[in-house]
Amino acid sequence: MATKPLKELKPNEKGKVVKVGGRGSVHRRLLDMGLVAGTEVEVERVAPLGDPIEVKVKGYHLTLRKEEAANIQVEVA
């Protein structure tokens, strides 16, 4: 299955986290927020200019910056 960055998903699209990139504290923060491999994510809303992106992870809402979402590779459902 093809993967793409989370930032490219449209509202209501779902995917499964395959890989979380980033360095140091950014990487750690994404993992701490529940964005680990195998986790289902759903894009709820994308701001008009694409930043921020609101996603639903493990039953809660999370708002990510576009740069953060670019570090998360997802397999689209």
Report on this model:
The protein is an alpha+beta fold. It has a single domain, classed as Roll (SH3 type barrels), CATH 2.30.30. Strands 1-6-2-3-4-5 form a 6-stranded antiparallel beta sheet. The longest helix has 9 residues. It starts with a strand and ends with a strand.
What keyword list fits this structure?
globular, six-stranded antiparallel beta sheet, 18% helix, 77 residues, 2 helices, SH3 type barrels, alpha+beta
Mean pLDDT: 91
Give the biggest sheet. 6 strands, antiparallel
Radius of gyration using CA atoms only: 11 Å
Q: What is the name of the CATH topology?
A: SH3 type barrels
CATH class category: Mainly Beta
Could you say how many structural domains there are in total? 1
Shape: globular
The number of strands is 6
Short account of what is shown:
This protein has 77 residues and is α+β, with helices and mostly antiparallel strands.
Topology overview:
Layout: E1 3-5, E2 14-20, H1 24-32, E3 40-46, E4 53-57, E5 60-64, H2 66-70, E6 72-76
Antiparallel strand pairs: 1-6, 2-3, 2-6, 3-4, 4-5
